[in-house]
Design a protein that fits this description.
Layout: E1 13-16, E2 20-29, H1 41-51, E3 61-65, E4 75-83, E5 94-98, E6 102-109, H2 115-128, E7 133-143, E8 153-160
Antiparallel strand pairs: 1-6, 2-4, 2-5, 3-4, 3-7, 6-8, 7-8
Length: 161
Amino acid sequence: MTTQLSIPENALVVKETQPFTALTFSTRATLRTLAQHAPGVAESLLQEANRLKLSVTGPIQWIYTGVNGDETNEFQLEIALPVGQAGEPSDEFSYNVFPSFRCATYTHKGPWSDFGALYDALFGQFYREGYQNDGYVREVYTVVDLVNPENCLTEIQIGIA
């Protein structure tokens, strides 16, 4: 059972994101296996960008394609580090261009352990406001503080069909 988390009424803001190029790690995952992908991927992306002398232009993003809330559903997971432009080839990662994206957004301040309850609250509001999800969700990790997780700032973007 998920803990209840309250968000302000009308917390979601609709916007169109800008397209971007990223150095990207891609895999298939389920909600149950997500934790397997977290350790070290962001740090490895940053190290590789530094090695390739790429200009980092934004925070790490986790991009979910085909996620539906079912813990056993397999979906595409891309962990992306925005860069100015593609550079030399990488042995570990690929370059991808992510198109603009119309979404409902909410910025969460606090630990990632809140995400289960947060997503329940956000999708509840999303559907009550008459939106339909297009199968895409992004998490933009604006502030990452592993020592004091209550300081983490994450923008949740839910794609609008």
